[in-house]
């Protein structure tokens, strides 16, 4: 059984934090997860973000999920954190099988997330009530979405029209406080479509104008923070030329393409409660930078001080962005950018021989992510 088979969303920006192993972006590439018409005149501007040297003490707690592997590329990878400090993520065992987990901030108790009978489980999204969505793989390598209730009951989710072959299927990526779910599915031709599911189980399909119809092309929703409580969705679409563009769908109005000036590929990682869209974009040089787009259409590009390249992994409801950047020695370091862009907090976790990534932050300023030791093994951490 090939447990380390390629994930069905490998070509989608939904694979940002969940399911990736940390690698040097200039060696292994940055996996920009998953997940995501009125044409607007978008103004892009580069700004120098003030670097804040924080003097106050912060407590960093390291953790590993029991059963996580100790080989290169294996280990524990936290992905998202909600207001009460509960953390959702994944761990990769010694056989390279993926599993989800939920960690309680106060007690440190870890609950493993495994869809019954699956060949691998990927926990992708969570709301404040701790309802969890994601997807699992069957014995044929097809993906099926799932919903896990706060009480631990699993429900399988399959979007109408989803393919059943290897690398096809349904990926549930986001769930909001009302129980609405957003995700993507791949049809029998390998084309991706975004779906929206009501709490009563009704599916609605969405394809971005300009999305390609070839295998691996289509429309993807961003993971964890790609759906707001008001029902706005952010993500990406890949055109017929294989180029990725960002989009926002709010109150039935489509905004796109969202592309910073000079972008040759744009990947949206989510949006705030006020529809501030965040993501990364690539230049023709191969380097990448973070960006935010405010509701008035203004796009601001950003990088950490002295960064060669900057990724963005998540944006919280208030607009704070968590991510990582690479310095001139190509060492990965974590950061959080304040919603107004005036404060840029940078940090490393001790023992991070191959880098630190901030994967998510919450309204209390608690940060979670993973660091990679000198042997290439992933470990989780919380910074308070």
Layout of SSEs?
Elements: E1 43-46, E2 51-52, E3 60-63, E4 75-81, E5 87-92, E6 98-103, E7 110-113, E8 121-126, E9 132-137, E10 143-148, E11 154-157, E12 169-175, E13 181-186, E14 192-197, E15 203-206, E16 218-221, E17 233-238, E18 244-250, E19 253-258, E20 265-271, E21 277-282, E22 288-293, E23 298-302, E24 309-315, E25 321-326, E26 332-337, E27 344-347, E28 356-361, E29 367-372, E30 378-383
Task: Please summarize what this structure is.
By secondary structure, this protein is mostly beta strands. The chain has strands spanning 43-46, 51-52, 60-63, 75-81, 87-92, 98-103, 110-113, 121-126, 132-137, 143-148, 154-157, 169-175, 181-186, 192-197, 203-206, 218-221, 233-238, 244-250, 253-258, 265-271, 277-282, 288-293, 298-302, 309-315, 321-326, 332-337, 344-347, 356-361, 367-372, 378-383.
């Amino acid at each position: 059984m090939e447990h380390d088979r390629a994930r069905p969303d490998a070509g989608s920006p939904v694979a940002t934090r969940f399911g990736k192993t940390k690698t040097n972006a200039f060696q292994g590439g940055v996996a920009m997860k998953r997940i995501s018409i009125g044409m607007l005149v978008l103004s892009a501007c580069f700004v120098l973000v003030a670097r804040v040297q924080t003097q106050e003490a912060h407590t960093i707690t390291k953790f590993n999920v029991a059963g996580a592997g100790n080989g290169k590329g294996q280990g524990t990878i936290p992905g998202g954190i909600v207001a009460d400090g509960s953390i959702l993520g994944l761990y990769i065992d010694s056989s390279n099988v993926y599993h989800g987990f939920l960690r309680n901030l106060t007690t440190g108790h870890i609950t493993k997330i495994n869809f019954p009978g699956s060949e691998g489980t990927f926990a992708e999204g969570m709301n404040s009530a701790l309802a969890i969505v994601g997807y699992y793989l069957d014995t044929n390598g097809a993906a099926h979405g799932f919903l896990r209730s706060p009480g631990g009951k699993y429900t399988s989710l399959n979007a109408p029209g989803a393919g059943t072959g290897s690398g096809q299927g349904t990926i549930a990526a986001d769930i909001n406080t009302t129980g609405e779910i957003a995700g993507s599915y791949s049809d029998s031709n390998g084309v991706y479509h975004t779906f929206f599911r009501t709490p009563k189980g009704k599916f609605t399909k969405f394809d971005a104008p300009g999305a390609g119809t070839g295998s691996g092309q289509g429309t993807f929703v961003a993971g964890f923070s790609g759906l707001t409580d008001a029902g706005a969705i952010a993500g990406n679409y890949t055109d017929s030329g294989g180029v990725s563009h960002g989009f926002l769908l709010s109150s039935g109005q489509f905004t796109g393409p969202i592309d910073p000036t000079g972008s040759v590929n744009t990947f949206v990682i989510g949006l705030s409660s006020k529809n501030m869209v965040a993501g990364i974009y690539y230049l023709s040089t191969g380097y990448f930078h973070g960006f935010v787009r405010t509701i008035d259409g203004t796009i601001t590009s950003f990088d950490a001080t002295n960064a060669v390249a900057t990724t963005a992994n998540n944006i919280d409801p208030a607009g704070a962005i968590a991510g990582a950047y690479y310095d001139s020695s190509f060492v990965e370091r974590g950061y959080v950018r304040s919603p107004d862009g005036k404060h840029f907090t940078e940090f490393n976790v001790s023992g991070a021989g191959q880098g630190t990534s901030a994967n998510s932050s919450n309204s209390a300023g608690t940060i979670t992510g993973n660091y990679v030791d000198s042997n290439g093994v992933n470990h989780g951490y919380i910074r308070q």
